[in-house]
# Entry
Amino acid sequence: MSEKKIRRSILARCIPRLTSLAKKGPSGWMIMIGIVIVLTFIVITMIGPWISPHNPSALFIGPPVASPSSQFPMGTNFLGQDMLSRVLCGGSVMLQVAGLSVLICFIIGVPIGLFSSYSGGFVDSACSLVMDALYAFPGLVIAIAIAAMLGPGVINMSLSIAVVYIPTYFRIVRSQVLSIKELAYTEAARAAGAKWHTILFRYIFPNVIPSIVVVTTINFADAILTAAGLTFIGLGVSIDVPDWGLDLTMGRKLIANGAWWVITFPGIMIILLALGFTFIGEGLSELLNPKLQH
Amino acid sequence: MGLRVYIITRTLLTIPTLLLLLTMVFLVMRVLPGDPVDLHFERKGTPEQIAQMRQILGLDKPIWNQYVDYLWGIVDIGYLLQHGYPNLGKSMQVTSQDVGRQIFSVFPATLELAIYSMIIASVIGILLGTVSSKSYNSLLDHVIRGFGTVTYAIPVFFLGILFQLIFGVYLHWLPVSLRINPNVEFPAHVTGLFTIDSILEGNIVKLFESLKTLLLPSLTLGIILSGIFIRLTRMNMLETLRLDFITAARARGLRESTVTYGYALRNAFLPILTMMGLQFAMLLGGAVLTETTFEWPGLGSYIVGRINYRDYTAIQGAVVMFGLFVTLVSLVVDILYAYFDPRIRL
Amino acid sequence: MPLLEISSLAVDYRTSRGTVHAVNDVSFFLEKGETLGLVGESGSGKSTLGLSIIRLVPYPGVIGGGRIKIDGRDIVALPEHEMQTFRGTKVAYVFQDPMMSLNPVKKIGAHFVELIRTHEPNVSKKEAFERAKTVLKNLGIQPERINDYQHQFSGGMRQRIMIGLAIALNPDLVIADEPTTALDVIVQAKILDLLESLRKAYQMALILISHDLSIILERCDKIIVMYAGHMVEYAEGTELHDRPAHPYTQKLLQSIPNIELSDQKLTAIPGSPPDMLNPPNGCRFWPRCSYTMEICRVKEPLLISIGRNHLVKCFLYGEKGVQSE
# Structure
């Protein structure tokens, strides 16, 4: 079969799967709930500027640190900004950074993983050594170090976070490739004279895809939390962009006065978004690798 | 093989990994766009200022020299013994200050936080994971698993702030920042860990006060981290509980508690121990955020503070410190693993 | 009063995909010192039957009905802590695979000490240790090895240790589930001989579970042939070998290779064991039986007595059932 037919058949298998997810039991529901949450967030972020009652960045729209009322359902922060508007618009930076970093990770980590493990020998050992050393390191610290050097901005944040998770992709891809490489049917293909790139892409890669998908979704969740962390420390984007992480930083000092609304709503948004991706990842993982079957 | 030989072999294996790690940190601080000294002065430095700082920090030397100096500074035992801290260069902010001294003075606080958080995380994780596995597929099982999943998605600083709000502001039960009540003197410095030092000093009041301030931060970090332990314990226990020797133990009439803890958990425990070691890295990342939230004066607060001052040598030194710590912990975990599982030494 | 009395025992596995009736309506009794052989293919329910006697059927298995009486006492509904006093003391179990039947992180001696002190708390550690050494000696294992771990022993020796643990407290009944399947042929014979000598010495009843009919024929007073969860034939003494009644039993006998026949054709039983989630209607064996009749596909046969202590569940011998013992 040609490459195109293989890709089409993979897609053809995915689509009926999507529609029959509900039938797959708790794992299927988890994936659907996760997808719903994530899509909702993406939509809200996109239409946020239009549906917000006020400009999220405008200062002193209302009295500072006002508790939730009918006028400001989520209250205001110490700059008099409307929390509801900030909550509706605050996800965009996070989603962009997470999305971009996952993309970078994928583009770099997966190919390196594929080629390194397929080649074996010295190349593989060298790459693994570097990746293992990187993997063992505290992720946030790496991100901090790099972000500190690069400076603020969406792209810089994405790069810092991407570096942290490249080893994860590398490892997953590598372990899958190594196990498939040894299987009989790969040997058979090689014996029949197939070229390395054919083997890699037609035989090995399609089997690696499920694990990569799971890792990607979990990666998304992690990236969101790391992005929030970076912003919390002050390595995020500039202050005039509404961001949930920023709200938490600013709101922290108001805690002593009992102003719970300034941090609770943005915090819950971060949790929900991360949960959305986590659900998709968990559900997929259970579906694709059923752990405990009787 | 024998335990002793294993310890030696494993320790020797740390050296290449460590070397790689240190080299990577070195490269990151040099290779990335932006010259550290230039950035320090925020591009507004005069040529004389820049040249002077470069000279003090040794950044005017060829890169190979810098690399050797850097490595030597870390490995130089003589310097370590003489000063009580390794040579990690001078701070960019106050060039007379040794970064090594600064780091070693704040590190114990992070160590204390890390230890207590890890204890809380593993105790919660192992207990809940075991309970969950024993009541497989019940409501309790699902609730515990849900708890584990959700806690992972909570940003640690958010939980920290919530705890501060609830326990500090609303309930007035616990202090929300700093390492110890300002009215209480630090315990005499032996390890740098306030709880241990208080015990060594025999001072109950100081012990009590340090535990009070330690409670919220370590609880925050511990809860967030427990999710992974819950899941891992549950999975390992479920797998272990179906093995033959468990049924065989029950067939001999042994009590269920003996079977759960003496047989199942003891065998499922080793991967959990390894996970503890692996999680240390994540713990440190979370520690940075936790320290910032609770104004806990450890290495995390230090590195965040240094960012604001654009003190790049200090940042480099802190990153090196984190790396060394993680490598040491993973070495200790591997050795402990070999101690508990006689099969590994073969 | 018989040592063990099973009446109409039923054991089910309640899985998410449906209920598997692993054991259906099995009845027999066993006196002190007797040997019973349970023979059948994988999935026939023999292991489940064995485990149900000590109430250790794994999740999601449940005892669906019937009675299990040990010394006249029905243990089906017994509370767990009371059941624990039976296990290891009155009834002992030897598992199939010795490779993972012992606690990998516990020394061999510690297993014995723990066992003894759980059931006899007044025994001191020292005394328990000495008793352990004695048991090991009787099994042909050097007592100095008492501080070794299970991975330092071969498969055969591990099985001896398992047997040692089983008989250490002088049980009245030992259930051995495929005790030799994981071992090579020469060790097999040694282990079975060991079991036999211990049985005679301590007057224990033995239930031997195996898929290997040749082993069962040699060593058992009573034999039950299981198929798809049903007891299809029961016979005592040499009856089963001399006059096999059920077509399945006959096929099993035929498939035992005979070393004296030089050009014997090995006969296998055609087909494969049924899917226990959806077993065939009527007699479970009909798809593989050479003597199938119309009625076999529709109705389930009942146990019929065809001689002295010889029961069979097959329409070939009539349709009238008999109250099984």
Remarks:
- The interface with chain A takes residues 13, 15-16, 60 of chain C (CB under 8 Å).
- The two ends of chain C are 14 Å apart (CA to CA).
- The first strand of chain C starts at residue 4 and ends at 15.
- The mean pLDDT of chain C is 86.
